[in-house]
Target: Delta-aminolevulinic acid dehydratase
Amino acid sequence: MFPTTRLRRLRNRKVQPLVRETDLTRSDLIAPLFIDETIQHPAPIPSMPGQSRLPLRDLPETVKRLSAAGIRAVILFGIPKEKDPGAASAYADDGIMQQAVRLIRSDVPEMLVITDVCACEYTDHGHCGIIMECGDCPELDNDLSLDLMGRIAVSHARAGAEMVAPSCMLDGQVMAIRQALDREGFSSIPILSYSTKFASALYGPFREAADSGCCQGDRSTYQMDPANRNEAYRESLLDAEEGADILMVKPAGLYLDIIREITTLGLPVAAYQVSGEYAMIKAAAANGWIDEEKVVLESLISIKRAGATLIITYFAEDVARWLQ
Model:
């Protein structure tokens, strides 16, 4: 006890780096990218300053720049020309996602390519799978949508995706995708499951970016209630038992307690610092209220300290530069 014990001894500026408990590295970061089949030039996303939808032809240059900065993985989201109730363009051989994967694998082979497996960007109703009419409000048909997720995942693997990330929060989605991949000879493709995805108010900018808003209803019947901690654990436990290789908590910053609990399952855990988290930091920094670099790094360190192995963040390229 004081005065014998003085913790400030270890806060000497030369000593601090030697006893630092949590480190953030460029290898921890995954950069999300939006690929838009309908544009010829990058289209800035108003609610996400510094982020743009990319046309296919600009994708290699962007990924090469990320690779040069030390980013080792990207996760892709596609915006197709055509949408329909069954999300046919999500699993088409010439779909925007499939083209994007092939282009990166050809031009930047050192980059790990992860694909978002969902239907919300590809359906004309904006829901994450096949819907059934239920009164005035459509409902997601869980079991009919499982086959669709398997078809999407297999099409991504055929195009060259090296990891698939199902994000629609369907019961049984990991098992359905694992079985579909294995059946088609892709048993080595890992699944990064959005195993604990909350029905958060922080997704608004993403839905603008990915053009994935719902025409009717919302996703609260298949995404999780932010109030539920035990259910969050059970969701990730079930995905682990179904064969997920990496689990994910989304959003990140408001759910650090959930990240900590999910790490006890023994699998690597990814955390998604979502579009609303990005937009709030950007807005406060633009107003001069905070130091953007310091706040971003503090936010990511807190996610790592909670136990995350990987962080998906729109700040990935900036952080890679700051860490250099």
About this structure: The chain has a mean pLDDT of 93. The chain has one domain: 24-323. The first strand starts at residue 29 and ends at 36.
